[in-house]
């Protein structure tokens, strides 16, 4: 039987609407779960003979679980070779267990042994032709090695087995983009949004589809659902000096200003520069500054119009150190050095009724340089009545 079970309840009872036990939960995944009907368990108990715990531990299937558990510890410790060694032993003792092949495939993937990983996923599918996770895993690996048609086929099989598999729809949509089949990609992302109307990835992909077709209003509708302030809404300034990390505490511009003058030029480490349109034209909410530039500082500016005063959350992260000002007041700062991800830092702010100015400062050390900023309610849901400055998109 297939049921909807919360994570952490494997082994727990499944109750019907009258409180009667009708099954036992056996496995929980993101999109589906499994349970054994209680009548099957009763029949098994009737047929089962008792044995000592010592004798039970000698069973090959139980010994295999022991090696599997060690392999899991090694995998999460990123000791993939040792994980494979213990999974080899588990498979030798119990070659019918699909989980062992799946996990060994994941370990091989982590080591870059993608062809060997696919062999393990193939075996898992051979043992269980309806194993959704195996199709998804094999699809990810084929996508990684450039076998886009093969990956697309695997995700299609996964979707056929589970029509509610939103992650598979998104993955297949991205593959269709690589194959330049834009209509198919659009359809898959639309299907993913049916399950989660505010899905960041799917909405941004559809927004980019509409933007490329010049349908800016449609693109804006889908961007609004994410709460992200995207590339087309920012103007940027820089780069300024960050050698020896001096940029974080150096105000290269009036950082508490609530308005900017686009005609003013500022002295940077290279030349005098003014505010300019963000050159990153990929519509994914990851605002990227200049490429191949290290130890520099940049600013980004935009405005948000709210119909009323309200409490909201800013969900921010930057690569590397970053600060955020709202209406001239510093509302957040971090001094970490890391890659930017969505929603790492979440903090409450108050938007005033009318136009609100937002200034972001990012101090780059090495490698990536950029940030994310998302505006949501306390539950992470985007507002549908905030107006983000998108004048630059209209001017394109």
SSE layout and pairing:
Elements: E1 2-3, E2 13-15, E3 21-28, E4 33-37, H1 38-47, H2 53-56, H3 60-76, H4 80-93, H5 98-110, H6 114-127, H7 132-144, H8 148-161, H9 166-178, H10 182-195, H11 200-212, H12 216-224, E5 235-241, E6 266-267, E7 272-273, E8 276-277, E9 287-288, E10 296-306, E11 310-319, E12 321-326, E13 329-334, E14 345-351, E15 354-363, E16 370-376, E17 387-388, H13 391-395
Antiparallel strand pairs: 1-4, 2-3, 3-4, 5-8, 5-10, 6-7, 9-16, 10-15, 10-17, 11-14, 11-16, 12-13, 12-15
Helix pairs in contact: 3-4, 4-5, 5-6, 6-7, 7-8, 8-9, 9-10, 10-11, 11-12
Q: Regions with pLDDT < 50 over 5+ consecutive residues?
A: 391-396
Count of separate structural domains: 3
Q: Which radius of gyration do the C-alpha atoms yield?
A: 26 Å
DSSP strand content: 15-25%
CATH topology of the largest domain: Jelly Rolls
List the helices and strands in order: EEEEHHHHHHHHHHHHEEEEEEEEEEEEEH
CATH architecture of the largest domain: Sandwich
Helical fraction equals 25-40%
Head-to-tail CA distance between termini: 54 Å
The helix/strand class is: alpha+beta
Overall mean pLDDT = 89
Biggest β-sheet strands, sense, barrel = 7 strands, antiparallel
Number of helices: 13
Number of strands: 17
Can you tell me the overall shape? elongated
CATH top-level class of the largest domain? Mainly Beta
């Amino acid at each position: 039987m297939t049921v909807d079970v919360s994570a952490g309840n494997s082994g727990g009872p499944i109750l019907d609407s009258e409180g009667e036990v009708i099954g036992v939960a056996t496995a929980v995944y993101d999109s589906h779960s499994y349970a054994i009907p209680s009548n099957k368990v009763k029949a098994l108990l009737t047929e089962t003979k008792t044995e000592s715990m010592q004798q039970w531990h000698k069973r090959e299937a139980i010994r295999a679980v022991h090696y599997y558990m060690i392999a899991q510890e090694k995998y999460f410790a990123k000791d993939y070779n040792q994980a494979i060694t213990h999974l080899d032993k588990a498979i030798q003792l119990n070659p019918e267990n699909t989980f062992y092949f799946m996990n060994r495939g994941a370990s091989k993937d982590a080591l870059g042994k993608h062809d060997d990983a696919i062999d393990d996923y193939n075996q898992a599918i051979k043992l269980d032709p309806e194993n959704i996770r195996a199709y998804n895993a094999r699809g990810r690996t084929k996508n990684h090695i450039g076998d886009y048609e093969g990956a697309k086929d695997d995700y299609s099989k996964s979707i056929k087995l589970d029509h509610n598999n939103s992650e598979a729809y998104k993955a297949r949509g991205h593959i269709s983009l690589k194959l330049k089949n834009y209509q198919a990609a659009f359809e898959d992302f639309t299907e993913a949004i049916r399950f989660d109307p505010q899905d960041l990835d799917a909405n941004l992909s559809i927004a980019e589809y509409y933007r490329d077709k010049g349908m800016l209003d449609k693109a804006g509708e889908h961007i609004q659902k994410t709460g992200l302030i995207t590339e087309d809404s920012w103007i940027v300034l820089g780069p300024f000096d960050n050698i020896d990390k001096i940029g974080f505490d150096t105000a290269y511009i009036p950082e508490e200003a609530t308005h900017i003058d686009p005609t003013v030029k500022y002295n940077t480490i290279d030349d005098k520069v003014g505010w300019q349109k963000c050159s990153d034209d990929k519509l994914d909410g990851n605002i990227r500054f200049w490429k191949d530039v290290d130890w520099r500082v940049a600013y980004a500016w935009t405005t948000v119009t709210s119909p009323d005063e309200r409490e909201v959350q800013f969900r921010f992260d930057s690569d590397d150190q970053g600060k955020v000002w709202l209406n001239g007041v510093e509302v957040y700062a971090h001094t970490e050095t890391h890659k930017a991800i969505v929603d790492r830092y979440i903090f409450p702010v108050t938007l005033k009724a009318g136009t609100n100015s937002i200034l972001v400062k990012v101090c780059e050390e090495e490698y990536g340089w950029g940030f994310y900023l998302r505006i949501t309610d306390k539950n992470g849901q985007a507002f549908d009545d905030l107006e983000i400055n998108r004048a630059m998109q209209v001017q394109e």
